[in-house]
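Pair request: fold both.
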Amino acid sequence: MTWQADGAVVRIGREVVSRARPGERVEAFVARGIDSQIVVREQTVESVTRSDSGGLGVRVIADGRVGFAYSGSLDPAALGQVLADARDSALYTDVRGDAVLPRPDGVPAADIDLWSEDCVALSTEEKTALSRELERAVTASAKVRGVKSVRWGDAAAESAVVSTEGVESYSRRTSCFVSTYVLGDPGTGVTTTSTGYTVGRSPAELDVAAAAREALAALPEAAHRQPRSQRLPVLFDPSVTAAFLAVVSGMLNNPATHPDQALAAAEPGHRVAPEHVTLVDDPTDSSAYGAARHDAEGLATRRNVLLDRGCLAQRLHDSTSGHRAGVPSTGSAVRAGYKSLPRAGARALSLVPGDLDRAALLSGVTHGFLVQAISGLQAGTDPLSGRFSAAVSGRMVRDGELAEHVHHCTLASSIPEALGGLLAVGSDVRSFPGNARGMTVLIAEMSLGAR
């Protein structure tokens, strides 16, 4: 990539805010970035794509009304127009009591560096070489019939938030990954699949060998049969735990619309999990994929404890939801990009790890199931009761050892029941793309059934 994060986004934000009228509160969110992807198959490059993006979102508050507009151009001529469009949209909105912009709260930004010049400077040839290396590593196994694809991806981005309330922040970050989608044949004539990947902020953090081992370990070696429907202890692979925590966080932080709504209606201090369960959102930890120095409203991020020793501790807030609840922002504003308004959300969820590694957790299970992949958890969870049914694949566990592979089964339970039955949290913490890290966890009981 020949691209430089030069801080121009701050200057653009200042220019927009300088045009605010008396009595008007204005916030400018400016972002720009670059990303590239490479697809390799059979050691041949199938595609190379590269895209540049950038834009500006402006929020205006006047007379208790909130207006918002955005532009996909950062040209000087567009700045005045997007501000005018935001003012115009405010004329057609209702007066809101929670119409606020945050002011600096004195919390210092974490001293973390999320930028790697090596990621920016890496050539297409070097990215391709790493992709080919991963393909060679997996195809060397007799278990593999072929590789559907190996994908390389990287991104570099910078953003700024500037407002009339005195907020001014600047952030930049890089990331890269390489992944593989592997095809196998366990002797049944039915193709099986698995994936493996590695992520980092720089190429030096990528572990191609580990990605290959992950893909091969999840690929069935023999024919399998569907298990009978049963309730049994369940272990989550780290990636599954990360998906589970994202759903838990959403239920904790969504406004309660019913007194019986699972988790959302619980008061601080209410016990929802065993004492050894503590859930935090810590964007100040640079090892988390979602780490950030500032939130999407320009306030410093901070470590927030959602569950403290099994009890509800606090909820995440941006300035609007915090004002509505009568509490300060927790530095937890997130955005889908410059085209969206901020909302409260997690960036770097993680359970506080326990002392047992994966092998130790497995050794304590006489008969259970290890979930290695899950789909439909978010969409399949009822927001009121927290009950869910999701498609899973994994392996049976017998006498502390991994046994046969199981595919296309259904896992059913509820988020409150799973939290309450969380028997142990592993020490094998892993970062994944998204807003959560994961580790192996053991849950007392869930329902497993053939689809």
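--- second member of the pair ---
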Amino acid sequence: MPMPQPTPPRPGDAPNRPNPRDPRQPLYTVTADALVAVDFGPRFGNRSRRTRPPGPYRRLFTVPGARAFTLGNLLARLPMGMFGISAVVMIAGTRGSYALAGAVTATGLAATALVAPWTARLVDRYGQARIAVPATAIAALGSLALLLCVHYEAPAWTLFASYAATATTPNTGGMSRARWSHLLKGDDDALHTANSFEQAADELCFMLGPVLAAFLCTAFFPEAGTLVGAVLLLTGVLLFAAQRSTEPPVHARVLARSPLRAPGIPPLLATCLAMGAVFGSMEVATIAFADAEGHRAAAGVILALQAAGSCAAGLLFGALRPTGPAEHRLPWCVAAMTTLLTLPLLAAARTNSLPLLALALLISGMATAPTMITTMTLVQQRTPEAHLNEGMTLAVTGLLAGIACGSATGGWMTDHASATAAFGVPVTAAATALMISLTWRTPPTG
């Protein structure tokens, strides 16, 4: 008896798929993939791995090119927390004058506030790679010139001129946020996670940078912190600029009008100014309080705990899905920041205990990152796309100006009242930021 011949596959049948008309083909097939997918339940130990959806940060770095430009940006951003303390240790250690060291760093801060927005405008107009690399090269040369002037005991005015040249350093954090804004356009949840990661990275760099700088300057030679910082800055920017596939495109027509005229930007910058005063006055008050208790060396560790709390809160905030517009979340974030900042004041006034102050700063720092993330999100939304780098750099400039004002106010309060009274300055500055955020509410522009 002849065996039945298999029916040829019909057009459109999937390859290697069993033909139900062929009596020799089994009705069901079991593959290794199917066995892995079977859930046998607790009776059989449930050893199979269930596929879990990736978390928000893991999904973020599946974007092509994201890991590469993030690595370069982190290398370039770490020196931002190194240069200030490196310059102070280097100048004060060789010239024996903290007044001179403070004046030089203040000059560099003022020059940065003036030059940084113009550098960012050039980045928007000509592209990140074309502007960031030469601007960073000038800044690195300025750092090396400062190092040589200090080492060879050049006149004091050369220190001011050299450190002022570092003002051309581009806003690497702003350029990274601009890339995320370009890559994640239309995905608000992913952009929220990206902004949270960037804020956490800022906190991490400003937490590790001073520690690394102090170690290099004390363990090797006074100029080591500045030298390593310049090398890291130049290397990081070169790696970052080499990732051309993720660079935002340059707009053919860039309006000459400054983002300062965009609706809602001036009150945001005023909020940044007030929040900068919080950071500057808190740093001075903490150092003064630790010095009054005879533990000035512990001030750096205590401030690092505040940054650690902010970093952890920023990562957690980025894993959450925000509800409602950012302009409605900002007052709540600033209100939480104002409320938590009363904890260091109470710890200093009631206990005079450094451990309790450290705990209070750790808790109060947890409101910093969510507030900054929401603020930068609003800056991105309200700044015209063609001026995004300039808009975010203006926000950073507002923070720097606020830090300078807060440091001066906190120092004045310490000298004329007490270190404990100086903890009232950050609370007042945060309350001012809260009033601004409640008074000014402008819908974002496209």
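Observation on the second member. The first helix runs from residue 32 to 37.
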